[in-house]
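Quick one: structure tokens for this chain, please?
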Amino acid sequence: MSQKSLYIRVICLVIIVLISIALFMTYQTYGNWQFASSIRGKKLLAFIIVGLLTSLSTISFQTITQNHFLTPSILGFDSLYVLVQTILFFYFGQSPSHPLLMFGVNVGLMVIFSVTLFGFLLKKETQDLFLLLMIGMVLGTFFKSVSTFFQVLMDPNEYDKLQGKLFASFSNVDVSLLYIVIPIVIGIVLLFWLVAPILDVFHLGTCQAINLGVNVQTFRWFILVLISLSVAVSTALIGPITFLGFIVANMTYQWLPVYKHYWLFTLAALLSILMLVLGQFLVEHVFHMNTTLSVVIEFSGGVYFIWKLLSERGKTRQ
């Protein structure tokens, strides 16, 4: 694909995203612009943060695993988030009164869990990455089982409150957390941008990356920790969204068949923000809040995942 064609596609998508944001921010404000912007602006900022973290972490994860069907949630982060929320509700009756404490506990536990897991498994053997993925799946199932055990013992009223915390919600984002999250997100995005050329090399394969001078084991450890921090911040801020990264990453590969991660990151982030903004617009003004954005994304992602599996299977048979 020519450089001109890349620029045209990205510019067109930027224009579409800006139009969507303008529509989301101004539709049916009825002259109450300040009131609407204070509410919708908070959601828009959350869309941008989650879109950036989800798209960059998913594409990086799929590059180092060399598999377009895997997402960081396979390491059990979503299940760990549910377990943390369940235990806090079980022992304390409700979430801590200070939202910053809850945010710090969630991010801290997820990052500690991932660093511990990577430290034990990412050694010099070539199978360690695949072992890591398998153990992540097993731990995810284990976390779900423990969460279910505590939920069965929980008071019905507390269980009802807990369910509201276990689904992604952009409407209840705490503004005070955004001022803390924004500097973290800027740092994460800059780090992803700096390692983009090394991720380009991984498209050639692990052996080629080693031959070109990349310290594969050290880089894998670094990028997995960076991915873990991205997923932890995103999940602790709004809750788990499993299929968002899968959708935007695979749409990016289809629409932009290039290997350079500068382009892949840019397009995936724009697609992710566009999907979240349009999805919330549909939820509010078409479905009239009868459903949630997370439900729409999970349903669409599940259908897209099945379609992707069937289409790849058909290509393999041919």
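The chain has one domain: 45-308.
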